[in-house]
Write a structure and sequence with these properties.
The chain has 256 residues and is α/β, with parallel strands linked by helices. The longest helix is centred in the last third of the chain and has 16 residues. 41% of the residues lie in helices and 16% in strands. Helix 5 links the parallel strand 5 and strand 6. It is globular, with a radius of gyration of 17 Å.
Length: 256
């Protein structure tokens, strides 16, 4: 199973959550919101074989100090996984629009040296994100929790991008409409934990199993076929990634 977008460091007990995901064999992309967050937890996550720590710079943090950019430049060679990055032009964040664009250009200029697994935030800014991806020749990214227009969704699919689906999307009419508009060979699964609730509790990477069942019902396909498509999509995405192992004595990230 694949959890393509999870904020493991935001759980009360992140190492426990990571150990549980590892025990169940769930490949989990542990996104971060700031380069300093990545740097702080990097030593603790290197022991995991199924947890991939992603270097992030969330658009809502785009006005952070120059120190964060320095840390990003220092840490970017240590991972092939980038996220959460992107743009957010919703009402509460539109005043930082220019800072966000400047920060995203900075990020793209620092990761275009080789293929990366990139998970994107693109709320109310989908067309601008697409234009910047094209400008920097960055291909095959993952739009996390896509909620934009179907016309732009079609453009993103045509450009070869992917979309990670979560429980919240399967519970809303608009979310299900978006899921049905995405060909199954362009989807991944995500929890966005701990920011989605299942009943009265936070979603966990182990809840990917129930998400797969929801996708089975939406697509009208057997569960095994859904699983096979998602695994195939993930393997296709990482097939071009050149993983970097900064310490030959530490276990490298596994990609199978």
């Amino acid at each position: 199973m694949i959890d393509a977008h999870c904020h493991i460091d935001h759980y009360k007990n992140p190492i426990t959550v990571a150990e549980e995901a590892e025990r169940h064999g769930i490949i989990t992309i542990a996104v971060t919101n700031l380069p300093s967050h990545f740097e702080r937890i990097y030593p603790y996550f290197r022991k995991f074989k199924k947890i991939r720590l992603a270097l992030g710079f969330h658009p809502q943090s785009a006005r952070q100090s120059e120190t964060e950019r320095t840390i990003f430049e220092r840490m970017v060679s240590k991972t092939s996984y980038i996220g959460e990055i992107g743009l957010d032009f919703s009402n509460e964040n539109k005043l930082s629009k220019n800072s966000q664009i400047e920060t995203l250009k900075f990020i793209f200029s620092n990761i275009k040296d080789r293929p990366r697994f990139i998970t994107l935030h693109a709320r109310k800014a989908e067309s601008v994100v697409l234009a910047l991806l094209e400008e920097f020749n960055i291909e095959s990214c993952i739009f996390h929790w896509y909620s934009g227009p179907l016309t732009i969704l079609e453009q993103a699919i045509e450009s070869g991008h992917y979309f990670s689906i979560n429980h919240a999307m399967t519970r809303s009419n608009k979310g299900r409409q978006i899921i049905r508009a995405i060909a199954i060979d362009h989807i991944l699964t995500e929890t966005d934990g701990p920011y989605i609730k299942l009943g009265n509790r936070e979603v966990m990477p182990t809840d990917i199993s129930s998400l797969l069942i929801a996708l089975k019902d939406i697509y009208g396909l057997p569960l095994k076929e859904i699983e096979e498509h998602i695994n195939s999509n993930f393997k296709r995405l990482i097939s071009t990634i050149k993983l970097f192992n900064p310490n030959k004595h530490s276990p490298p990230h596994q990609d199978d």
